[in-house]
Design brief:
Elements lengths: L27 H23 L12 H5 L1 H7 L5
Amino acid sequence: MAQSAVPSAAQPRESAAEPRPVPLRLPVREVLPWAVFAVVLGAVLIYFVGAEQGATSLFGGTWVHEFTHDGRHLLGFPCH
């Protein structure tokens, strides 16, 4: 008997030939501390690159400004 190229409802599909993807489970309790750490670190970096200068300066001198100078221009923060 010849087989058709299009499977019909009468012909069962072989489930062993096509593996189904298993969903990835991420436990929130394990990811949350790292997510909070990444957000805090990102906020500190944005502060030092974008605002550590002038009246809001935490450190005296211009060494932080000079250290982050190219990063300021790359991210579009004015510094001159």
